[in-house]
Design brief:
Strand content: 15-25%
Radius of gyration: 29 Å
Strand order of the largest sheet: 2-1-3-4-5
Number of helices: 8
Number of domains: 2
Structural class: alpha/beta
Bound molecules: calcium ion
Distance between the termini: 46 Å
Largest sheet: 5 strands, parallel
Helix content: 40-55%
């Protein structure tokens, strides 16, 4: 349920706004002066703020400026004076919308819904999807560093995971043990190319149905390995 903060010092207006928004299914809080509005805006998470311009203690300009410095919460600014609306537009404080009082509560609800939907789209599109490789029953979530074989999750050590992911990211490319060692282990690592052989063996035990007939990581005799597709 979306949470909305109304910062409004005229209680009749605040009550009307709250009633309509609650009837539309929103969770509403009211701050009746500028100081309380500023504190709530900064310390709590709201999905949208309806901000009156003329307020005792701290005015709407200042609240908008301070909230914008820290958060992207949509803000609808309201004022009784059309001139004030023009002024705040000109100041570029970062409010998302402006309404002149008196307005119909249903108009307010419509605008609130529109801004919430718009913000959700913005935030939603900013969320990156995990990078995933899926090849014949093996699924590697590179971002989450998790691996599933035919739907069953298997655990891998860091180097096993890195080696498997590297090979699977370059399907059908044959790598020598030297190349794999320098790719996965850093220069200071103690070990040699035998380390690669050991890790390949461990990975196969986890991903192959029959390790004597590997279906994923193939040995190219005298050369190295490749992830077969
Ligand atoms: Ca006021």
């Amino acid at each position: 349920m979306s949470k909305i903060l109304i910062v409004e010092d005229e209680s009749t207006i605040a009550d009307l706004e709250r009633d309509y928004l609650e009837l539309s299914g929103f969770n509403v809080e009211v701050a009746s002066d500028g100081q309380a509005g500023l504190e709530k805006s900064l310390s709590e998470e709201y999905d949208l703020i309806i901000l009156d311009l003329m307020l005792p203690e701290v005015d709407g300009f200042e609240i908008c400026r301070q909230v914008r410095a820290k958060k992207n919460t949509p803000i609808i600014m309201v004022s009784a004076k059309k001139d004030d609306i023009d002024k705040i537009r000109g100041l570029g404080l970062g409010a998302d919308d402006y309404m002149t009082k008196p307005f119909s509560p249903s108009e307010l609800v419509a605008r609130v819904k529109a801004h919430l939907a718009r913000y959700e789209r913005l935030v939603g599109s900013a969320v990156e999807e995990n990078k995933v490789i899926e090849i014949r029953g093996i699924k590697i979530d590179i971002t989450a560093r998790r691996v599933w074989i035919n739907g069953e999750e298997k655990s891998f050590t860091t180097k096993e995971f890195d080696l498997l992911t590297f090979l699977a990211s370059h399907p059908n490319h044959v790598y020598t043990k030297d190349e794999l060692f320098s790719e996965i282990w850093d220069m200071e690592s103690i070990g040699d190319i035998a380390t690669v052989t050991v890790h390949i063996k461990k990975i196969r035990e986890k991903i192959e149905f029959d390790t004597s007939k590997p279906q994923y990581i193939e040995t190219i005799w005298g050369v190295g390995y490749r992830f077969k597709v």
